Amino acid sequence: MILKFPDNFIFGTAISAFQTEMGSSKESVSENSDWYKWVHDENNIKDGIVSGDLPENGDGFWDLYREDISNAKYMGNNSIRLSIDWARIFPDNIEDIYANIKYEGENIVGVTLPKNSLKEMLSSSNQKAIEHYKEIFKFIKDSGLLLFLTLYHWPLPLWLHDPIKCHDNIETCEKKGWLDDKTIIEFGKYAYFISDVFSKYVDIWETINEPDIIASQGYFFGNLFGFLPGVSDISKAFKVEKNLALAHNISFKNIKKFNKNKEVGIGIAPQYFEPIKNDSETTRFVKFIKYLNNEWFLNATNFGLFDNNLDMIFDEKIENIVPPDYIGIDYYQRVKIGYKGLPDVPYIFNIDLLPCEDCTDFMWDIYPQGLRFVSNELFEKYHRPLYILENGIADAKDLKRSRFLIDHLIELKKTIDEDKIPIKGYYHWSLIDNYEWARGFSMRFGLYSVDYNTKKRHPTKAVEIYKKICNGEEFDEQYR
Ligand code: BGC
Q1: Given this model, what pLDDT does residue 427 score?
Q2: Helix or strand or coil: residue 171?
Q3: Are the CB atoms for 271 and 278 separated by under 8 Å?
Q4: What are phi and psi of 6, to 5 degrees?
Q5: Which one is catalytic: 210, 263, 295, 411?
Q6: Spatial distance between the Cα atoms of 376 and 416, rounded to a whole number of angstroms
Q7: Is 436 among the catalytic positions?
Q8: Which of 21, 241, 390, 411 is catalytic?
Q9: How far, in Å, from the CA of 118 to the mean position of ligand 1?
Q10: 414 φ, ψ to 5°?
Q11: Would the pTM of this model clear 0.70, i.e. be above it?
Q12: Atom of ligand 1 nearest to the CA of 213
């Protein structure tokens, strides 16, 4: 079988800083973020909110990046997606550094830095970390790969967020992270600074990875997924999502200032929601869940339209919002949904989630057709080019990864060829096994598996298949 993609199609693999950098040396460890504090917290470990695995025992990409990037190159990838660690670059509080702030009503719509502030930021930053990132980027460029850089893949510096105090009491904690408008301003400054420092190396930019997940898992689902700060309050979840939309918009403009001709976008994690019944109540309910999960954020960032009370009617229009150059899709699973219809329970809590049919180790439901469906739907709604920025499987025994990869790429090809949806690239999650947030090292997403004791990388079966697909070569269909 041959899966031939367009000539300029981007094939890559993705990783993120917190999930892969630490583990190889003292320098590789970055301790000043909220996630670092969260996963080390003894009560969180005791209560089973987090696994007890520690990120400083991880991959060590910080030192072993040459080997990993060479493996990506070996697979015929022409790009790699990674993120940088805000808390590593700015471990100390820099709120005092002045920024020009532009408001529309009460909303922050612009944050820029005068020259002096940019200089101050440079002298307050961790120069060693910046130089090290430059070395990694240079190696990527010298290997002939396009660098796709995500500015923010989840951890916040501790000077902006105390996840433990906020978990204990979200009303009284002082450092409220994304619930606080201050974080929007600091993100604007960070984006301005980073694009000044790194634009020479970066080919494609992403502002924020999956703002929808940060908001829902951190502020709606309480302790269920172990995401910080483990709060369960829907109005707070959507305040966070609004702040992330504003932060994206500001950082988009700031990156564009230094990267006029480069693409800058945002990636979310849309799921394929399938109603378990066809009756009108279930259909209406699934439409609502899909709206909250797949559309709310993109309505805000593409059209400036906000629905602040979640009644599916826009109640605020912000003019100073610029649509992104592309939308990134992180697609993993189908979710089958029913409506419980319990009278005394808030509408959203009436959700009935059905178990997976074809399960990953995470008990996520494998459903490749969902990738095609979601891509069609988001393109029809938002008319932006698309990238698949994540798609992958937790599969420690390496039993389903090859089939997963092939079947998703078959659907992707149909989406491009038959549906004519402009999808410009595909990044598999993940290049190497990585630290899976609250679940630690148990979930194995890597195309290359990692022995965390020896730090040795081993190719999974899918490596040779991905290599053949990236190179447009024939591969054996029996792997499915
Ligand atoms: C996140 C990754 C994570 C992956 C698998 C995505 O939502 O961006 O950080 O490892 O899913 O759970």
Answers
A1: 99
A2: coil
A3: no
A4: -55, 150
A5: 210
A6: 10
A7: no
A8: 390
A9: 32
A10: -60, -40
A11: yes
A12: 7
- Kindly report the CA angle at 390 between 70 and 182, in degrees rounded to 5? 105
Q: Quick one: which of 296, 372, 287 has its CA closest to 337? A: 287
- How far is the centre of ligand 1, averaged over its atoms, from the C-alpha of 358 (Å)? 19
Residues above pLDDT 90, as percent of the chain:
97
pLDDT band at 478 (very low <50, low <70, confident <90, very high): confident
- The continuous run of DSSP H or E covering 290 comes out as helix 280-290
Report the nearest-CA residue for atom 3 of ligand 1: 436
Q: Is 106 a catalytic residue?
A: no
Query: Contact 199/135 with Cβ under 8 angstroms?
Result: no
Strand partners of residue 149: 82, 205
Share of the chain above pLDDT 70, in %: 100
Q: How far is the CA of 121 from the centre of ligand 1 (A)?
A: 30
Q: Is 260 exposed, middle or buried (0-12, 13-18, 19+ CB in 10 A)?
A: exposed
Decide if pLDDT at 191 tops 90.
yes
CA gyration radius, the chain: 21
Does residue 71 carry a pLDDT above 90?
A: yes
pLDDT at 477 over 90: no
Neighbours of 332 (CB within 10 A): 25
Q: Candidates 214, 390, 437, 447: which one to mutate for ligand 1, based on the most atoms within 8 Å of Cβ? A: 390
Across 256-319, the runs of DSSP E, i.e. the strands, are 263-268, 272-275, 305-306, 316-317
Q: Is the pLDDT of residue 388 over 80?
A: yes
CA of 429 to the centre of ligand 1 (A): 8
Task: Look at strands 456-459 and 351-353 and give their pairing.
Answer: unpaired
> Is residue 424 classed as helix, strand or coil in its secondary structure?
strand
What are 111's strand-pairing partners? 101
Lining residues, ligand 1, CB within 6 Å: 16, 19, 209-210, 213, 269, 330, 390, 429, 436, 445
Angle between helices 181-198 and 234-258 (to 10 degrees): 30
266 and 327 in contact (C-beta within 8 Å)?
yes
> 309 exposed, middle or buried (CB, 10 Å; 0-12, 13-18, 19+)?
exposed
Residue 8 CB neighbours (<10 A): 8
E strand or H helix that includes residue 393:
none
- What was the pLDDT predicted at 294? 97
pLDDT class for 480, splitting at 50, 70, 90? confident
Q: Residue 476: its pLDDT value, please?
A: 82
